[in-house]
Each structure stands twice: as C-alpha cells, then as structure tokens.
Specification:
Blueprint lengths: L23 H13 L18 E8 L6 H17 L4 E3 L21 H18 L2 E8 L8 E7 L5 E6 L19 E4 L2 E7 L6 H9 L4 E5 L11 H16 L2 E5 L10 E3 L5 E4 L6 E8 L9 H8 L12 H4 L6
Parallel strand pairs: 1-2, 2-3, 7-8, 8-9
Antiparallel strand pairs: 1-12, 3-4, 4-5, 6-7, 9-10, 10-11
Helix pairs in contact: 2-3
C-alpha cells in the first residue's frame, strides 16, 4: 500500500508552505467567523434601504367587537400575539375594534368611558412594541368640547408609537349622529409597501380609491363593522364584491376586516387583479394570514390607459373629427 505523506512533508525545505506562513490560521479563523456571523450591516435593518423588500406578511383579524372595551382589548392582544407567532409584519383589526361601534354596540356616548379607552390603547401600544409589530386598529378619537369624536384607524409602529390616524371620511346618516367626518388621506410604508387606509362606508365612493392610486398605494387596509345585522342583509354580498372592483380598477391589494359578531361577513384578502385570495369562516374569531410580494405581477386590464383616465382623458387611442361621427342622429 502506498502511503501518501501529509501535504508539505515532501516539499523543498527551502520553500515554506502557505500554512507555515505567519498569520495563516488567524486568517482562516477570521474568514470562518465572518461567514458564520456576517457584519450586522448585511442584515436588513428597520428604516434602511435594504429593508425596502416589497414583501410583507399581514394578519387580518376578526373577533366579536362589543361595547366592553376591556374584552375587545383582550381579544386584540391575543390575536396580536398569535399574529406575531405567525411572523406577521402588520396586524389589522376592524372598525371601532377597541371602542365598540356606536349605534349598534351602544346607543349613546354620554357615559362612554374615555379613560378606559385610553388605558387599553396604551396596552395595545405596549404590546406592539414588545412584539415589534405594526398595528392598524379601529377606535374613536375624542375631540374638544361638545364636538363629536372621529371614527378612526390608528397606525402603531413596531416601536409602539402612534404614527398617524385616519378618520372615516364618509359617515353614514346613522354615523353622523355620533361622529365627525374626517378630511384627509393617510399613507405609510412597511418594507417598501405603500399602504393606505379606509373605513367601511368609504367603500361606496370610488373617488377615494382613485386618490390612493394617485398616491401610489400598493395596499389598502379597509376596516368594516357590518355585524349584528338583520338576517338577509345585502352587506355580506355587496361589500366584498365592491372591494374587488376597487382593487382591480386601481391595481392594489386589499385587506378587509370585520367584526365576527352574529350576522356578519368575514375577513377577505384581495389581490390586485380583483380576485379573492382567501377569506375566513363567518361569525367566528380568527386570523387570516396573507403575503404580499410586489415582484409578483397580476393581470391588470386597465394598465395601459389608467394614467390617461386619471388625467381626464376618458378614451383610449385618438379621436377624430369626422362628420359621420359628429352626426349621432343618422346612420350615414
């Protein structure tokens, strides 16, 4: 049997091997450590360019919203924790999720416990910070004097801070007995995904969605309260369908959340082609996990002419000045 000597033993003694040079093993050790534990700068950091991945994981949540602020908060904190365990970047809750919905969950705001609402809002913010997760949740925002509150969506960042607030712009006639309407749009970015907010009855006004398209939104978080309705209500049918049309004509994702109290309809997630990617069972507490990747392309029938339409050019191609075209009362 031929025995092969270790590398270097038969080398010319006048020639030093690479391994015998000073610092060789130190260099190998440093390279190994670098490969196993690359510098922190190589990882995407919050707020850095490398964190602009265009990918986010969303938890759309439903539970039986009620007038009991503490019970609502308990549901929300449990679902936030579950969403975090499922690696969600953003947790999304229904309209008036924390406060309860006036006109249905309570008939008056005269005895409403604002201190309790503030205390539980602080709890939600603290948990968001602990879990390092974004939150979008419905509540009421108190105004001064005798002014009616706003019906609002708060945005909480992973540092547990309120970064902005959307106030429902189109309130129903019933809403206006309790609420002051809002007057602004809200956008925010998560991992490079541009997000906008809307609430319930806003779904009836396509102009709002068009404005969000002009603001280059990729995703709309829309919170609803369509629960405790009479049997046979049209809302479970028309709300998702209306949202699908808005998503398709404007090419953005939509997360729809709703209370899961009786006679409701469930959370939906809609893709930019207007299709329902997934939805939850009806009338039960649950979380819908959805994933967005801006690199994934969907069918977009309006793409070629949408920008023209937004600018007011309401036809494709070029029109002509032709007498047979101008005379609309004759066939020739």
């Amino acid at each position: 049997m031929k025995i092969i000597p270790p590398v270097g033993l038969n080398q010319d003694p006048k020639k030093k091997s690479a391994m015998s040079r000073p610092g060789f093993y130190q260099k190998i050790l440093l390279i190994s450590l670098w490969l196993c534990f690359p510098p922190l700068a190589l990882y995407p950091q919050p707020g850095s360019d490398q964190a602009e991945s265009g990918k986010i994981r969303i938890a759309s949540c439903q539970f039986p919203v009620s007038a009991d602020i503490r019970a609502n908060c308990t549901w929300m904190m449990e679902q936030m924790t579950e969403a975090s365990l499922k690696k969600a970047d953003v947790v999304h809750f229904p309209e008036c999720a924390l406060s309860g919905y006036p006109g249905t969950d309570m008939t008056s705001l005269d005895q409403f416990d604002w201190v309790e609402l503030y205390r539980n809002t602080d709890s939600i913010m603290g948990l968001a910070k602990k879990l390092k997760i974004w939150g979008v949740f419905g509540s009421m925002h108190r105004l001064s004097g005798n002014h009616k509150p706003h019906n609002s969506l708060y945005i909480i960042n992973p540092q547990g801070e309120i970064t902005d607030r959307y106030d429902k712009r189109f309130c129903t006639g019933g809403d206006l007995e309790y609420f002051t309407p809002g007057d602004h749009f809200v956008t925010f970015k998560v991992n490079g995904v541009n997000c906008g907010l809307l609430i319930c009855y806003d779904v009836r006004f396509p102009e709002l969605y068009r404005e969000y398209r002009k603001l280059n939104c990729d995703l709309i978080f829309q919170s609803f309260y369509n629960a405790r309705q009479q049997k046979g209500s049209i809302h479970p049918v028309i709300m998702p369908i209306s949202s699908q049309a808005h998503a398709a004509t404007n090419y953005f994702y939509m997360s729809l959340t709703n209370s899961s109290a009786s006679e409701s309809w469930p959370c939906h997630f809609i893709t930019p082609d207007g299709l329902i990617q997934n939805k939850l069972p009806v009338n039960v507490p649950a979380i819908l996990i959805s994933y967005i990747d801006k690199d994934v392309k969907y069918y977009d029938a309006s793409k070629d002419y949408r920008s023209d339409a937004i600018r007011g050019k309401l036809n494709s191609g070029e029109t002509l000045l032709d007498t047979l075209s101008l005379n609309r009362k004759a066939i020739h």
